[in-house]
């Protein structure tokens, strides 16, 4: 049975990637926090142990995904998630084997290369949950312009991150991983 | 790459951006509490906010200077008076003390002097699962946790009465209506004193409208039983809803539930204790929604969603108050043991998209008059066979009295009416202190029953069209007459004022 200190250590080590995973599946912030909490409690109650952080991470993700699917059923929501193997492959491709550290570093660097207005729009959208109207007011664009600004900024980020992380997803797809 | 994969990569970028730019989240305390473990006694390292204001280092430096200055000053005060050479520098430190900037409170800092809501350390009862059986043992309703003085700020709540023994009837359950609150129509069944017979628990709800047959079940002796025709809900009754159901309480409040709740009374305040799902409330009087040790008082229209050890509160009208913090209209936030979290904007359209039960807009009837048993004052007519008829008085036309009903400004007026000749018909509200407000319908067809739906905001004063009926006005009379002042025979079959999101 884990001690309080071990539980704390596990949560601190894995909460970031678990919350990111749940958001990636489609949870909003609050739901992601709920699902992550339930996942940790389940793992603590089941007393699952692994010396490998990767194995524990995979176990947490599977548990979290099941909780999310149960939540969708309970809420009678029809959200189609891709098959588990597709999900895991896409997650591994982005997250890498360092719990997304390289990706986050690349994202941080690529953000520096964006125009100030694009940075502001992304910060408002993802940092403050601002609506498109609020972003358009802050950037001086009409709502459609704000939408285009966000889309272009994300396209640039994707391109830049792919280069920095050294991934070529088209190549991976051609090699049959899809 | 297939579209699924492309979409997943896009979503990963979204998640990473939220991760990088959004607020820091630390689940350690929540998890330890949920797992029934004591929180760590040693201090934990908590990540600093991402964007620390620039003035903080300056404020810290100023605070150090102030402390140093005070120290020197105190030292000088205790020194013997015959050492004047040391008093000068001490005096010089005093302006620094006065100039020290006091840091402005941050929006999410706890309010000084206000104790946050606390909850017991033991693990919460297990959450109901999706595949729960038809019957489940019902735990007894938990006693409300002792409420710290600042936990719930109740508007004008009277001092608590001593609790009556079980089974004892409250002889005077009449709620004290704070000024500005909607007086429920006399025609409603289940008004608190009337629905309660000696030896019975108080009736809290007598009008229930399920969205589907047998959609409402009531806990009865440890089992769920379908709601029987004409069954009322009494203090302490617990219901579970499949689909959704509307519950009109004795005070006129409308609750729409998709989930499970119990209705109770606490010091004359109605309490909805939520055990799962979603509750929409349009309150005629303040309503307290509880979940475990949490409590939030609603005064207008709000949606409350059950979460493990938390409530998601979205306010559309009025306020939601918990732990001495008020959430205003158009804002949503999560309420947990630490109080309300960060709030965000919310609109009814957002909630409608998210919750199927709101697809059909909920409507609370602030006034409903069918003229079946009308006993109020009438001008220029009379009630016959359930219809108000008249209009011979060319000055006053046909009018009837009700209420008074304070308005919030978002109501609509509906009525079924008929006139005997084509007219420009004035529909007019009399208010308690602000004169008359009118709305004109041009060219009303004669001899046909017609139904009208008019927002109260479309009524304006006779003298000034820009002065409209709005929140704060209280209406007490409704009147029909011809715009040209000629007598016109008119009839009203039914009339209602409806509040909706």
Report on this model:
- The complex is a heterodimer of chains A (178) and B (501).
- By secondary structure, chain A is mostly helical.
- Chain A has two domains: 4-95, Rna Polymerase Sigma Factor, Chain: A; 101-167, Winged helix-like DNA-binding domain superfamily/Winged helix DNA-binding domain (Arc Repressor Mutant, subunit A), CATH 1.10.10.
- Chain A has helices spanning 4-25, 29-46, 53-74, 84-95, 101-112, 116-127, 132-139, 143-165, 169-177.
- In chain A, α5 (101-112) crosses α8 and α6 (116-127) packs across α8.
- Chain A is globular.
- With 501 residues, chain B is mainly beta.
- Chain B has three domains: 55-99; 114-360, Jelly Rolls, CATH 2.60.120.1440; 366-499, Jelly Rolls, CATH 2.60.120.
- Chain B has a 17-stranded mixed sheet that branches. In chain B, strands 18, 20, 21, 23, 26 and 29 form a six-stranded antiparallel sheet that branches.
- In chain B, a hairpin with a 2-residue loop joins β13 (320-322) and β14.
- Classes of the chains: A mainly alpha (178), B mainly beta (501).
- Chains A and B meet through α1, α2, α3, α4 and α5 of A and α1, α2 and β17 of B.
Q: What is the number of helical segments of chain B per DSSP (H or I, 4+ residues)?
A: 6
Instruction: Give the class of chain A from helix and strand content and strand pairing.
Output: mainly alpha
Count the E strands of chain A. Answer: 0
Oligomer: heterodimer
For the record, the CATH architecture of the largest domain in chain B stands as: Sandwich
Strand content of chain B: 25-35%
SS class of chain B:
mainly beta
Which radius of gyration of chain B do the C-alpha atoms yield? Answer: 30 Å
By CATH reckoning, the class of the largest domain in chain A would read Mainly Alpha
Q: What fold name goes in the CATH topology slot of the largest domain in chain B?
A: Jelly Rolls
| Helix fraction bin of chain B | 10-25%
Roughly what is the average pLDDT of chain B, rounded to an integer?
74
CATH class of the largest domain in chain B: Mainly Beta
Poorly predicted parts of chain B: 41-54, 78-137, 142-195
Mean pLDDT of chain A: 84
Task: Determine Rg of chain A (CA atoms, Å).
Answer: 19 Å
The total domain count of chain A is: 2
Distance between the termini of chain A: 40 Å
The total count of helices of chain A amounts to 9
